[in-house]
């Protein structure tokens, strides 16, 4: 009996943000390619984006009544214990009915409830931690997980060292094999092939502080004879679309990120785990502006891990007024610095992360 004919029941959970959802989908896709007859079930948080994204990717999903704790004392926080108990009870029902061979968690409170029950029922669990500083959910789950797949060094501070495997974070397969070159990509965005191009990405909803920064520096970009692909996000498109012209291309969302990365000479970005992994593979000079409004300030820690290798520039939001114009100008006018950052960030890329993670899962399935 070869691997392709084996039938497993595989349950995956990760959600709340794309940074948890897309790695889970990538892992499921790779497992499905190896075990096409197997059965897959996702578990997410009701009313979160996974309830749409997972079915769109072709998988079944069940929702739990769970949400994270808010930073302020709110009614939602008072409801948290009830939601947690409800989610744990529903997780018992889901696991008893589905009877998985393995449970895989990629982060988020739904994965916390599900994998906790899986551990109690002695089902093999695997945790995939995307960030350089793990959240509380994965820290707790890691104690009983069979393996913990990580993207950064130094996580033995948080997890049992013998369980850690450095795999990197899953990224889209077509990004690893990008079929765009710079000229083709700039033509796609109707940009001048000879001009330096800045790509600005702040997440699907957008990043208010980054958008305000770009607005304030449009004259600087034009004075330096550069052009901008500006993904301002769904929440901010109506406000910033007035700046769209021949040199400034304003997008609510960029569907073709392969073309965007290929067109870029310099990238300005948040520092979510998935973005960081993609940017290492894109291998372009990056200015990271991490969001300060995330749990454990993990974006700053992600960006610091790259910047400490002289592989990117890190500017915190509260430093932008003093540092951005001078550092951006120095970077865009120095081909030497651009080449150095590009070379160094490429060395941190782990393009085979999905296959590596699934190799480790397969070892647990067939043992």
Give your account of this protein's structure.
The structure is a single chain. The chain is α/β, with parallel strands linked by helices and 367 residues long. The chain has two domains: 3-170 and 351-366, Rossmann fold; 174-346, Rossmann fold, CATH 3.40.50. It is 44% helix and 16% strand. The chain has 16 helices and 13 strands. The protein has a seven-stranded parallel β-sheet with strand order 3-2-1-4-5-6-7, sandwiched between helices. The chain has a six-stranded parallel β-sheet with strand order 10-9-8-11-12-13, with helices on both faces. Helix 2 (50-56) links the parallel strand 2 and strand 3. Helix 1 (18-34) packs across helix 16 and helix 4 packs parallel to helix 5. The longest helix has 24 residues, at 75-98. The chain starts with 8 loop residues before the first strand and ends with a helix. The model has no long low-confidence stretch (mean pLDDT 92).
> What's the number of domains?
2
**Overall form:** globular
SSE order, one letter for each helix or strand: EHEHEHEHEHEEHHEHHEHEHEHEHEHHH
The proportion of residues forming helix, as a percent range, comes to: 40-55%
CATH class of the largest domain: Alpha Beta
- What name goes with the CATH superfamily of the largest domain? Glycogen Phosphorylase B
Widest sheet, order of strands = 3-2-1-4-5-6-7
Distance between the termini: 15 Å
Mean model confidence by pLDDT:
92
What would you report as the Rg, rounded to the nearest angstrom?
21 Å
- By DSSP (H or I, 4+ residues per run), the number of helices equals 16
Largest sheet geometry: 7 strands, parallel
Q: Could you tell me the strand content as a percent range?
A: 15-25%
